[in-house]
Amino acid sequence: MTLSASDRYRYDVRRPEWNPEGPAASATPSCGAPTEAVRRVSVVAEASSPVRMDFSGDGTVLLRAGYGDDVATQRLPAVLSGAREVSVAFNPAYLLNALNSFEAPRLRLDLLGTGQRALLSGLGGEERDGDAEDEEPGAVPERHRHLLMSVKQLV
Q: What's the rounded Cα separation, in Å, for the pair 120 and 41?
């Protein structure tokens, strides 16, 4: 699609940068497990309540949804690098859509920090030497990426 000079004023064609300094932390869970876990814990979540993901340095992520007496939690393995712990909450429907859009065996979540947006990218199974700065050894990143905005946590 080619834009004329008048169209460029009508449409904002700038591409915002993800984060010039890089992510504060990266987490790498398997792809299928978070999808099923989000589906299970979001059953108790009300329409407007988020699914909270608490990543910890011990290699796990705690998914939590609901408030008060109706709370569902599930702990999954996820390697966190770049921070000791990060908490972020997402709309369960948007999070499920993002997770379902990947066919890769593993995911990488680049997190800017607690309560910030996250960039999801799939990691394929083909071997690579990992000489690029942002790649893990042995993992080929997919071209597809998904930017997911966090929601404000009430508790």
A: 20
Task: Write out pLDDT tens, residues 9-60.
Answer: 454 444 455 554 566 788 887 667 888 888 988 888 777 789 999 988 888 8
* CA separation for the pair 42, 50 (Å, rounded): 8
Q: CB-based contacts of 15: which residues, under 8 Å, 6+ apart?
A: none
The residue assigned the tokens 């591409």 is 15
Q: Are 35 and 51 in contact (CB under 8 A)?
A: no
- pTM for the model stands at 0.72
Q: How many CB atoms lie within 10 A of CB 29?
A: 23
> Could you give the CA distance from residue 23 to residue 11 in angstroms, rounded to a whole number?
29
Q: Is 45 in contact with 63 (CB distance < 8 Å)?
A: no
81-105 per-residue burial string, b: 16 or more CB within 10 A, e: under 16 = eebeebbbbbbbebbbebbeebebe
113: left (phi over 0), alpha (psi -120 to 50) or beta: left
Q: Which two tokens stand for residue 135?
A: 């790649």
Dmax over CA atoms of the chain, in Å, equals: 58
